[in-house]
Each structure stands twice: as structure tokens, then as C-alpha cells.
Amino acid sequence: MLNITPNFSQDRALNMLRRDWKQHNSFMVYSPTGSGKTGLAGFITDGHVSRGMRVLFVVPYTTLISQTADRFIQYGLPEDEIGYIWRDHPNSDPNRMIQIASADTLIRREFPDNIDLLIVDEAHLRRKKLLEAIKYLTENTKVKVIGLSGTPFSSFLGQYYQQLIKPTTIKELISRGDLSSYEFFAPSAPNLKGVKTQQSNEYGGDYNEEQLAEIMCGADLVGDIVRNWLENGQDRSTICFCVNVRHANHVTIEFNRAGIAAEVMTAGTPHDERQLIIHRFEQGATKVIVNVGVLVAGFDSDVRCIIYARPTKSEIRWIQCVGRGLRTAPGKDTCLIFDHSGSVHRLGFPDAIEYDSLPGTSDGMKDSKVQERAKRVEKLPKECTQCHFMKPAGVYVCPKCGHKPLSGEDVEVDSSRGLKKVSKKERKYTKEDKQRWWSQIKYYQRQRTSMGKPVSDGWCGHTYKSKFGTWPNGLQDYPIEISPEVSNFIKSKQIAFAKGREKQQKQQETSEPQIALPSINPALKSSEYLRQHITPAGGSL
After folding, report:
1. What is the bridge-based pairing of β-strands 204-207 and 197-200?
2. Using one digit for the tens of pLDDT, what is the confidence trace for 466-505?
3. pLDDT value of residue 29
4. Are residues 149 and 260 in the same domain?
5. Dihedral sign (CA 331, 333, 338, 339)
6. Distance in Å from the first CA to the final CA of the chain
7. Phi, psi angles (nearest 5°) of residue 461
8. Is the pTM of this model over 0.85?
9. For helices 484-511 and 431-450, what crossing angle results, to 10°?
10. Mean pLDDT over all residues of the chain?
11. Are residues 157 and 268 in the same domain?
């Protein structure tokens, strides 16, 4: 007997399964983030085990075996009846009623012949031998098969699962408050002309990673990511999705140079180190985790901002990644999503991607040419040309800044400007707010002086004016401790200045005639400027 009760989505799914149980041998349950997929699996498993029936639960990765078992035990399933199909594991016992295995381990072994139910987690992933086993079980035995997926969009699913069970949607979960709302912004977008497409087991057809990395590693694009986050990220706990390890390293270095604690996590990061990184992230010691495809499944930490810097054609990849920021948390009002990839223009909002039947255009046995996705033009959002907020389909006046576009203005996207507004309403600063900002700028000046790297009163005045458009006339000079918001604003302006200075120097070098001149002291390069002048509050780089 389980110690949990089903939520509304789980209750619906269980009722729909009971309704169709005798008519079909295999089912695909659409279970988005926040609907309680593992809990649903627990209810289904308990129903079978209580009647003396054996269940095999398949997870996509070995790292999820223990995590799933722990969840089952928490729900009240008998611990002494849970066995692992995992070499040399102390809980390996083929006689136990509940068997948990990873897909990659299972397909290298002889498939168990004594089960009554097969449950496949993340069933949209392509494992050829597992698909063959599903086909055999449903056509030649009485074993039932249930697939679970938050993105059941793979082109082969209709060939192996007979009935789609769709108890809820992302849109409904957001409206109920079971998932966080979101705000999309498109601060910049790369030019992907000429980038080829390749196939993968997890995401179907998508952009070639090596070609993507060449584009996304560009200094301007990486710099845009960090500058935009400093100006608009509100110092929120953030996950950044990158193309490959090289790209992730570039982004992480740029964050660290700006004084932001960022760490890299990739498929090559050892499990123990991943747990330490996640722990530091949850404690606030690490502000940004820059990752390459490893925080897609089984990651439930409190994420309040997503940086998406991995262009994609895959609806599966898009929803899986963005979904990491949609879990609710105490004090979380909404999730900020900064799309630096152009994906929201191609694929739309995550809660607008819905299917009412399972695709069946391939058998999943061989790599096929990418099927052209049916274009849902009417569901694609439009970018506000003024503040880069992504307006929902059909919305004319921007709900973020109130801009009313001229005829045809929102057809072409201007990605050359920075993000202007993030808050739901344009913030009105009071005199007290402005005094706090000025006092924190003066605190920063005193801090720099104590470090032997002073900044002038004129610098302080210009920094204030770049924020509010006026000089700090009539304000008091007393300092107060600097906040992350003011600190990040200062860093973003210094980075922009340093890069502008470097660009100006390069232009001068290319325009000046190549003749011998007396030796002069060259202008500082931006990297040296950053080292000498950009210092995180309270310490040195």
C-alpha cells in the first residue's frame, strides 16, 4: 500500500489506462514535467505487484537506477522486492518482483522472460533492441507495455505503442500553478545558414554540432550571453545550455571573468563531481551551471533562469531543456528564458507544442532523412522589436513594454539591440531607489580605493547617468554595501567598454599606414583591462 495519493494528472492517467487496458497491449503516457511521472509509475507498479505480477522498469541511464529505486521506496513500495539488473550490484536479484534496469545495460543482455509488465521511462529515446523487444512482447505475448515521456514526439513511436494516453498538457499545468509561468526574450540570434542536419538517438534530426560550435563560440555571441545576463538576469540561479564542451568552456570562462561563479558540467563529468556542483548550485555558491546535455532528465533543482545557447530543430530537445526552469519553488514568480539560439522563432513556446496522436513515419531501425515538421505558423510567437519580449501568437501590442508595431514591423527580427525590459511592468524608480543606487556606486568607489585601484568621481557620475539618464544631483554621498544588481550592472558596463576599446584599437591598427614610429605605450587590451579594472564585490579575480 503506497503512502501517497495520486494528483489530478496521475488520477486521470490511471483512469484512462483502466478504460483502455483490455483493448490495447501497449500505451504511451504523455507525462510532462511537473505531472508526477515517477509517482505514476509507482502507482502502476504497486497495482501489479499487489496482485503477484512482476514489473520491469527501464530508465534511460544507469545514473537514474538508484534515484528511481529511492523514489519507489519513499512512495511505499517494498524495498526487499526491488532488484537491479546491474552487474555486480548488491541488490541484483532476478527473483524480486520489481526489476529496475538501464536501457543500455538491458539491450546487452538476454531480455527477461518472466515479466508481466514492461514500463519504459523516457520512451521517446531510440534504442533499437528495446524497440524490437517491445514489438515482440505486444505481438506475441500477454505482457503489457507502458511508455512514459514528457515529449512523445519521436517519429517511430506510433509503430510500437498502440494508444496515446494524454491526461494533461504543459499549458494546463502552468494555468493550475503546478508549473511555473515563463517569460521569453530573444536578446540575440546566430546566423545558421549552411549548417547541416544530423540524426541522433535522443533528439532525431538536429543541427550538426561541430558546425554549430564554430558559430556559437564566436566572441560576440558568447559576450552577448554574459552581458545580457548581467543586465537582465536579476542574479537568478541559472542553467545555460551549450553546444559542446568547447562552447561551454568559452561561456564559463567569460562568466568567471565577469566575477560570476559558473561551473561546467558535461557527459564526462564524474557522477560524484556532478553531485558536488549541484550541491553548490543549490546552496547559492555557484550561480550558473553551464552544461552540455546532462541536465535534461532527473534534475529537479530550483532554476529561475534558463540561457538557451544551443540552436535546435528538435522539439524534444527544446522542451526537455526549457522544462528544467518550469518547476515551481517557494518565492518563484516566473522563469526568465533568454534564447540566444533563435529556437523560439523556429519552434514556438514549449506549451504550444502538442500532438494528439503518436507519429509513425519511421520504424526507428535506421537513420532516415529528416521529416519536415508540419509548420504551425499560427502558433509561433513574434518578437517585440523594441524590448525583444516574445509575444504570444496573435498578440499585437507588446504586453511587456506596450509597443504597438507598425504594419509589417514584427515580421523581420532585429537582433542587434540589447534587451531593454524584463519585469512585468516598467519599473518606476523613486528618489529613495536612486539614492540607494548612488550610495552603492560610492561604496564601490571606496572599495576600489582601498584596493589601490581608485575610480574617479566623474566615473561614478557617468555610471549613474548610464542607468538613469540624469546626473546624481542632490543625492548624498554616503556609501551602503553593494548589491548583486548594482554590481552586475557595473560589470556589464565595464565589459562593454573594454570590448569597445579593443575594437577601436583594432580599427586603428588596420587603418594606420605601416611605417616605423617612435615607441609608444599601447592602449590596454580588453583582457588586461578586465584583469585590472573589473573586480567582483568583496575580492579580486
Report:
1. antiparallel
2. 999 899 998 988 888 888 788 888 988 888 888 888 888 8
3. 97
4. no
5. positive
6. 56
7. -65, -40
8. no
9. 70
10. 84
11. no
Decide which of 370 and 10 is more confident. Answer: 10
Percent of the chain past pLDDT 90, that is, above it, reads 52
Based on the fold, state whether residues 135 and 156 are members of the same structural domain.
yes
Strand pairing partners for 238? 288, 305
Neighbours of 310 (CB within 10 A): 27
Q: What's the rounded mean pLDDT across residues 370-380?
A: 47
What cell was used for 204?
Answer: 532525431
Q: Are residues 208 and 314 in the same domain?
A: yes
pLDDT in tens, 423-437: 334 567 888 889 989
Asked if residue 232 and residue 157 are part of one domain, the reply reads: no
Q: Does 164 fall in a domain?
A: yes
Q: How far is CA 136 from the centre of its chain?
A: 36
According to DSSP, the residues that pair with 164 across neighbouring strands are 28
Residue 517 lies in a domain: no
Grid cell at residue 123 = 520512451
d(CA 222, CA 309): 9
**pLDDT tens-digit map of 268-308:** 888 889 999 999 999 999 999 999 988 766 678 899 999 99
Answer yes or no: do 319 and 196 share one domain.
Answer: yes
| Interior angle at CA 287, CA 34 and CA 253, nearest 5 | 125
For residue 27, give its domain range: 8-168
Residue 98 main-chain phi, psi, to 5 deg: -115, 120
Assess if residue 117 is contained within a domain.
yes
Residues 68 and 209 in one domain: no
H or E element that contains 322: helix 315-322
C-alpha cell at position 325:
526552469
- Res 483: pLDDT: 81
How many folded domains does the chain comprise? 3
Least confident of 115-124, 366-375, 452-461: 366-375
Q: Does 404 map to a domain?
A: no
212 plus 312 within the same structural domain: yes
